[in-house]
Amino acid sequence: DSHLKVLCDTLYDEYGDGGQHIVAxxxxxxxxxxxxHYLATGKPALVYMQNSGIGNIVNPVxxxxxxxxxxxxxxxxxxxxxxxxxxxxxxxxxxxxxxIPLLQVLDIPYFVLSxxxxxxxxxxxxxxxxxFIEKGKTVAFVVRKGAFSGGKKVQYGNxxxxxxxxxxxxxxENAGETDVFxxxxxxxxxxxxxxxxxxxxxxxxxxxxxxxxxHASMIAAGIALSKRGRRVxxxxxxxxxxxxLGSALVLANMRCDNLVHVVFNNGAHxxxxxxPVARGKVDFNAIARSFGYSETYRAENENxxxxxINKAINMTGPVFIEVMVSLGSRQDLGRPSxxxxxxxxxxxxxxxxxxxxxxxx
Length: 361
Description:
By secondary structure, this protein is an alpha/beta fold.
């Protein structure tokens, strides 16, 4: 999370990934890990996340940690994206408004950290938090923008040559005019939008999944099942796929013969800091094959990607393509100029027949 960038870099610099510091698949899994740590040691663990992750921890917090069940304490550090009166992206606005109410509903005492938080007041927060923890309660530190500063900046990377934006452009140029695209949360969607602008193409066939990380594949599958006459491309990320890996298993067995699932593997959670995904060692092609995708391919350069696309569009799906890409994006990468609602309506019009289109409008 950008609000926690300093903390993320500091933890990774100090501990790496493994042992005392684990980059979990998702926030709910991290809470489960923390619960196991407490059961084994009697000491609470710290789980950090963007506030969008609160949704993923509701179940383990309510049915595992809460005092009405096991009373297992945990320390949460939550980046407050979309804080009221702070400008942010559309997907963070509502989440920002309900961050504090969600913590209240979940019976989690919280402390807000900001640039104005002094050493003395932070010490008092720790003292109060410790008292709650002694009673078996989970506590949260909600971090406002700019609250953390300093620290060592960690540089993440890999040795791959193919840029994700280049790979996206190749797919866009070789896909059919009636094909539909669902792109995952983060920079991939931003790059797809700019590629369409650069090629002079419409955005009407794209659904840019600005929130709900890890669910692009299910959105794509929902479209593919309902529109069998169109090819649907899911443009996914390695971190997003790992986050809800079970969805790929379900998708593979849906027999969506018109779906191509593309995963851009840069070995990192790039859009939220760059930390490695499972240490960057996941073989997604092997996973997809074991899950039951009709065909699976891996592309490490432009020619291999073009070959994989040509094969995929002539195969009965679901087809899986793992694209090995470099880590990083253009410094001047922009953001979509269309609102999420405009994006939704344009796609629904593109997918509908004339009668449905009049109803939508």
